[in-house]
Design a protein that fits this description.
alpha+beta; Nonspecific Lipid-transfer Protein, Chain A; five-stranded mixed β-sheet
Length: 128
């Protein structure tokens, strides 16, 4: 579903994402079913994307069953799956309850989901 092996380089090459994470130093856990990856940001750069445990402490997390992630990452998402916050309110996606943990960088979370959506739905003839 998510090509973890190219996520870091794809994020590093995305100007909108790089702009959205400027100055951000934090860790983010993405839990897709029973697979967990941590993304570490250091002063606005993607320092690492690596497997982690479900209980790895991070500043921000976005989690849910695989079926929910499939809906979130569909090329054309259904109602309330277009945005991670609304997917957490109306569907089975979990996001930090403490909105202050991510509020300033919420555009980065939205862009991250869009980048993962694009990677999960490569256009015909594109290599991904």
């Amino acid at each position: 579903m998510i090509p973890w092996n190219i996520l870091k380089s794809t994020l590093e090459q995305d100007p909108e994402f790089r702009y959205a994470i400027r100055h951000w130093t934090a860790s983010l856990r993405l839990s897709v079913g029973d697979r967990h990856h941590a993304i570490r940001f250091e002063d606005g750069a993607v320092a690492a994307v690596e497997p982690c445990e479900a209980d790895t402490p991070t500043d921000v997390f976005l989690a849910g069953p695989e079926a929910e992630w499939r809906e979130l990452l569909r090329k054309t998402p259904g109602p309330f799956y277009q945005d991670p916050f609304f997917a957490s309110v109306h569907h089975g996606i979990e996001l930090n309850r403490d909105q202050l943990a991510y509020a300033a960088y919420y555009p980065a979370l939205r862009r991250l989901v869009q980048v993962m959506r694009d990677l999960s739905n490569p256009t015909e003839g594109a290599s991904a």
